[in-house]
Amino acid sequence: MRPLRFLVPGTSGRYRCGGLLVEQQTSRLLAELVPTQLVTYRQREPGLPYLGDLLRAEPLGSPAATDSLWIVSWGFDVPRQLRALWGRPVAYHAHSSGYGFRLPPGVPVLAVSRNTLGYWGQWASRNPLFLVPNALEASWIARGDRPHNFGAEPAPGGRSIDVLIQRRKTSTYVLEQLVPALRARGLTVLVQDGWVEDLVGLFNSAKVVVYDSADHWRCSGVSEGFGLPPIEALACGCVLFSSLNHALADNLDPGGLAHQIGMGSLAADGERIAAAVADPAAWLPAPRRLEELLDELSEPRLRQRWRQALEAINIHIDRLQAGEPPLRHPSLLQLRLERWRQRLARRLA
User: What DSSP character marks residue 286?
Assistant: First the structure.
């Protein structure tokens, strides 16, 4: 298989975010299958190659220009990166959807969620499509204090936090209405903000976790690409109250693995969360179902999915480089004109 180059804007400062961590984790895991490297294109980083330098050193027409498979992923930058990499093997690692661009024919899509897969199944129906969900880091699965996990590391003080909320992406409703209402009921509520050295330990200290990102993503205009925090909460044995927007609905179902937040009224939310704090076991998902989900999202499973996808992508690229034209899906205008032509033909028949 071709070596992989994961293209990211930078690895420090303002570029540190969930998308970067996913690319770094994926690059690390796939290094066991094929040579991989991170390549930056906005900010030069010590010890990492820079896109402009590589393009100058490997001009189109040289053997090196087609030796590697480039993986682009950074939302709004993807069209620009595809233009810069024209004529070179490239695939799109699709996190969020809704950025508004269309992919060229033949560019494979590696979707991190079924929600994103469905989006590109609609708008790139003739491109090779693959599902490679984000992986939960091994520490969450190994150390999470959930039922039947014998390697768990319970928090020294037990579950001293009744309700844990991470401020980032959380709705105004939760922060300004629900939190005061829960505290008025006498519950211990922690709104976590900023860097935490040991997130597994923090989640192991909580009975209930609330994750409500729907307003954040509706305002942003793009989708929740995967949503790892809810899965991390489940891995640590927390009762999860979550929104069900976008990719969150891939795995979370109301009353099953999770419970809906914002279920009709503030009073209803307060009563249900208070009941979950009082008796978490009655609100936790079935252990077997949870373990099946965690196994599906484990790092070994991700590596297996990527291996299968990369083998198919390399065969696809070999075909294109041999001169076989990629399939093209008709434009929306063509589809509408054809529909009107068929309707007119039926009326005239």
Answer: P
